[in-house]
Design a protein that fits this description.
- The structure holds two protein chains of two kinds.
- Chain A is mostly helical.
- Chain A is built from six helices and three strands; from the N terminus they run H-E-H-H-H-H-H-E-E.
- Chain A has a two-stranded antiparallel ribbon with strand order 2-3.
- Chain B is mainly beta.
- A seven-stranded antiparallel beta sheet of chain B has the order 1-2-7-3-4-5-6.
- In chain B, a hairpin with a 3-residue loop joins strand 3 and strand 4.
- The longest helix of chain B has 4 residues.
- Classes of the chains: A mainly alpha, B mainly beta.
- The interface between A and B is medium-sized, with 19 and 33 residues.
- Strand 1 of chain A pairs parallel with strand 1 of chain B, so a sheet runs across the interface.
């Protein structure tokens, strides 16, 4: 009961969060979720562009579909940023940062692109976000000594994604 | 003086699970009142706002050593001791989620 009340209030006011870092699932890091989220952002922009071209914009159906696409784009741009922040903050250690001194700049670039992808419906921005996340994924897998390959995602938007070559 | 905090992460699992809420309290005498085993919320310079269990207190230096409930949790061995100025509060009430 109290939990439900707090949870409802939380959804509106967004309580502060305290991190209980690095625990049972610790050691399980993978940039794949960030890559999927970046792909989703591109896909949503494509769907939004398609909707504008193919449908009247003053219908309830248009408004409903557009709202859903925007909401999903927002959510996944944020998921992308979150996933990268976790790997950057929790997984990467001092020795990694010495070996890949570009990481801080790259993560900052991803944060900026993620925000821009939320603020705009610009496909180029969304693709740039994926490219930056792919670059981060290459570094991540290199820290584990795992080679990577860049292949086209077998689903729309069919953009290039870095996968571990296991 | 009182704050509501939502928990993320599993460091204190199963005592406190991700998604649970805690009410924390920060009176002026907070540091003096803390004893081993208390659950505290604090600001860590690099990792941000965190919640951990107090392992030990150095009253002279005004420092706490903290840890989680798992061997692979981050703790004071990895990020250092917590200065009393960085304390945000002590957990006085834990509201569990439904999980």
């Amino acid at each position: 009961m109290i939990y439900k009340v707090l949870s409802s209030i939380d959804k509106k006011v967004n309580f502060e969060v305290a991190q209980a870092h690095c625990d049972i699932p610790c050691g399980i890091y993978d940039p794949h979720r960030a890559q999927l989220a970046a792909l989703t952002v591109i896909r949503m922009v494509d769907l939004m562009e398609g909707l504008v071209k193919e449908h009247k914009t003053d219908t309830l159906e248009f408004q409903n579909s557009m709202s859903r696409y925007v909401a999903v784009k927002e959510e996944h741009a944020e998921i992308c940023k979150h996933e990268i922040r976790v790997i950057w903050g929790d997984y990467l250690k001092a020795n990694h940062l010495e070996k890949y001194p570009q990481v801080h700049g790259l993560v900052h670039k991803i944060m900026q692109l993620g925000s821009k992808a939320r603020q705009t419906a610009d496909r180029e921005t969304a693709v740039n976000l994926l490219d930056a996340v792919n670059e981060f994924a290459e570094i991540f897998w290199d820290t584990k000594g795992v080679k990577t390959k860049k292949v086209k995602a077998p689903y729309k938007p069919e953009e290039l994604v870095v996968y571990p070559d296991l | 003086m009182f704050r509501i905090i939502r928990i993320a992460g599993n460091s204190l699992y199963p005592k406190i699970k991700p998604g649970d809420y805690v009410i924390i309290y920060k009176p002026p005498w907070l540091f003096n009142s803390i004893i081993r085993g208390d659950v505290v919320v604090f600001n860590q310079r690099i990792l941000g706002r965190m919640i951990k269990i107090v392992d030990s207190k150095n009253t002279e230096k005004g420092e706490l050593s903290v840890s989680g409930l798992h061997s692979d949790s981050t703790n004071s061995n990895s990020f250092g001791v917590i200065n009393k100025e960085d304390l945000i509060g002590k957990v006085i009430w834990h509201i569990r989620g439904n999980k």
